[in-house]
Structure formats: C-alpha cells, structure tokens
Amino acid sequence: MHGYPLWVLGTMTATNKPPVGDIMTSELHTAWLAHRRMIVVSQMAPTALLITTVALIQFGLADTSLALRVATAGILLASGILGALVQFQSATEAQTLARQTEELASSASWLGVVKYVTPAIFTVIFTALMVALFWL
Question: Residue 73, class by beta-carbon neighbours within 10 Å (0-12 exposed, 13-18 middle, 19+ buried)?
Fold first, then answer.
C-alpha cells in the first residue's frame, strides 16, 4: 500500500498521506543511529591493533626483523587513517543531521571529540609505539 513502512500506515490521515513530521523525525533518528554505529565500529580495528601491538612488543616484536616492524607500522597506520576518515565523515554527517532537530543538538556537541581528539590520541599512541618498535 503506497510503499510506506507498516508503522506509517497506522498513522495515515484521511488523505492517505503520512504525517510528514513523524517520518522526518524517524528518518533523522535512524540516520543518526547509523552514523553513531559507524563511529563505534570504525574504532574497533584500530583499537584492537594498538592493543595487540602493545602486547606483542612485550613478547619481543621490537626485536624482530626490520621488515616485520615496518609491516606492523604500515598496518597500524593504514588502520588508523581509514578509521579516522570514517569517523570524521560520519561525525560530520551526524552534525548535519543534528542541525535539523533540537533533540539531537546536545549529543552532536560531542562529535568534535570524534573528529579531532580521537585521531590526536591515536597519533600519540602510534608515535609511542613507533618509538618502542624502532628506537628503544
């Protein structure tokens, strides 16, 4: 019936059109949640790789061949860059969505942390790991 989701059909008016505000709010919240989920998921691989590298350094990774250490650095760097790009893009798009409704404004104020602070923290940790891998 008109291709509307089932929840919309229950709210249709006499003119057979869904209430616009309800759909827009629902679509905004769905998109908002998708962006938040993407931010969280994009942090998993870099975080897991950083933790694993710290553990492997304790078991002698810094004493392995130069090629293996360079490969480790490349994997960490690629993971961090790709994760940061996804986080930055998702946070930017979520901020755009938040400007369309007051309900999301307070949560959107924290997206600057995702865009700028999280990559800075990754950079500091990455640098410390590179020092541990190559110079200590």
Answer: middle
pLDDT digits (tens, 9 = 90+) for 26-54: 888 888 899 999 999 999 999 999 999 99
In a domain, 58, yes or no: yes
Q: Phi and psi of 65, rounded to 5°? A: -65, 155
Q: Which residues contact 136 (CB under 8 A, 6 or more apart)?
A: 62
1 within some domain? no
In a domain, 66, yes or no: yes
Helices (H), 11-108: 20-58, 66-98, 105-108
Beta-carbon contacts of residue 108 (< 8 Å; ≥ 6 apart): 94, 95, 97, 98, 99
One-letter identity of residue 59: F
AA letter at 36: R
Q: Could you list the residue range(s) of the whole structural domain that residue 86 is in? A: 6-134
pTM: 0.73
**Number of folded domains that form the chain:** 1
